[in-house]
């Protein structure tokens, strides 16, 4: 199968939609610990963001349950615009005693945590001046700004990070307007099939393919990644049963309707059956992960 033309370089990610069991419990977590703002609340539905467009949509299904060992969301990644904002989030989590795992990826500084229903979250800021990571010979490789090999997964230097906060800094301030969904990382059943779908079907460029690492990273416009996929739960992992907690879909935002239509036809020509959704379309990758494509 030939790859479609690369997806438009101004493509970005939009809202991530999760099936949730208890909005009264989950919404305060995203507000008070993560710093998002509730932007809509109605029966069975909540939308959160940073003052602009929706970043996270929660759909309540009280009987939904977490099913382990399936494909779905590994983490959604919230991109903040500076080290100061990352420091504020991490300091707030530590102050509240909430488990979090600050990590230095060189090209990014980040922290990882799970929400109260087991959904993985990454909060990060881009720091390309500190180094790079790549996939030389199909293996993950990280180098700092001086060219030295590094693990790319060192603990983050919190003493240095917290210097970006002043003593009077309000740790409870919400995330700034510039906050967005930077990427999503997905559990899949088959790495080659997933890359085939996102690269050949939707046109994301493959930024790193590392079979030994059981992961691949794809993006638009040269970004380090908008979509990550892995088989860390094992080859052939099944999709979650209908109605399970977790990912309903993530959103790919392209610049115009012509690009939506082109990608829809690309998928149709490859045997997919995208359905109309929010002025664009919804489809599923071979592992059952939902993808919505809309025009920005």
Describe this structure in words.
With 296 residues, the chain is of the alpha+beta class. The protein has one domain: 2,3-Dihydroxybiphenyl 1,2-Dioxygenase, domain 1. Helix content is 19%, strand content 39%. The strands form 3 sheets. It has a 9-stranded mixed sheet. β19 and β20 form a beta hairpin.
Summary tags:
296 residues, alpha+beta, 2,3-Dihydroxybiphenyl 1,2-Dioxygenase, domain 1, 9-stranded mixed beta sheet, 8-stranded mixed beta sheet, 5 helices, 19% helix
In brief:
19% of the residues lie in helices and 39% in strands.
Number of helical stretches of at least 4 residues: 5
What is the level 1 CATH name?
A: Alpha Beta
What amount of the residues lies in strands? Answer: 35-45%
Count of the domains? 1
Strand order of the largest sheet: 12-6-7-8-5-13-16-15-14
Topology:
Elements: E1 12-20, H1 23-34, E2 37-42, E3 45-49, E4 54-60, E5 72-79, H2 83-96, E6 101-104, E7 108-114, E8 120-126, E9 131-136, E10 139-144, E11 149-150, E12 154-155, H3 158-162, E13 180-187, H4 191-201, E14 205-210, E15 215-219, E16 227-230, E17 246-254, H5 257-269, E18 275-277, E19 280-284, E20 290-295
Parallel strand pairs: 1-4, 5-8, 13-16, 17-20
Antiparallel strand pairs: 1-17, 2-3, 3-4, 5-13, 6-7, 6-12, 7-8, 9-10, 10-11, 14-15, 15-16, 18-19, 19-20
């Amino acid at each position: 199968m030939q790859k479609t033309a690369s997806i438009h370089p101004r493509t970005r990610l939009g809202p991530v939609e999760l099936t949730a069991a208890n909005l009264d419990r989950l919404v305060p977590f995203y507000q008070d610990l993560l710093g998002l703002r509730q932007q809509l609340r109605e029966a069975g539905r909540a939308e959160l963001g940073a003052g602009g467009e929706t970043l996270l949509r929660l759909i309540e299904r009280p009987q939904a349950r977490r099913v382990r060992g399936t494909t779905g969301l590994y983490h959604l990644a919230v991109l903040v615009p500076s080290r100061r904002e990352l420091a504020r989030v991490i300091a707030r989590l530590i102050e509240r005693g909430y488990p979090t795992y600050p990590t230095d990826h060189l090209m990014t500084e980040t922290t990882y945590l799970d929400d109260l229903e087991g959904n993985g979250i990454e909060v990060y800021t881009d720091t390309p001046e500190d180094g790079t990571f790549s996939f030389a010979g199909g293996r993950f490789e990280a180098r700092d700004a001086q060219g030295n090999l590094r693990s790319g997964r060192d603990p983050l230097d919190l003493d240095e990070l917290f210097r970006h906060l002043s003593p009077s800094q309000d740790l409870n301030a919400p995330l700034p307007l510039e906050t967005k969904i930077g990427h999503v990382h997905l559990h899949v059943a088959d790495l080659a099939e997933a890359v085939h779908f996102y690269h050949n079907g939707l046109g994301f460029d493959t930024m790193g393919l590392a079979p030994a690492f059981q992961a691949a990273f794809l993006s638009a416009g040269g970004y380090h990644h908008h979509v990550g996929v892995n088989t860390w739960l094992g080859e052939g992992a099944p999709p979650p049963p209908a109605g399970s907690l977790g990912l309903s879909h993530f959103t790919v935002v392209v610049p115009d309707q012509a690009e939506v239509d082109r990608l829809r036809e690309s998928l149709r020509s490859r045997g997919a059956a995208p359905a109309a959704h929010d002025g664009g379309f919804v489809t599923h990758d071979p592992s059952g992960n939902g993808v919505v494509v809309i025009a920005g």
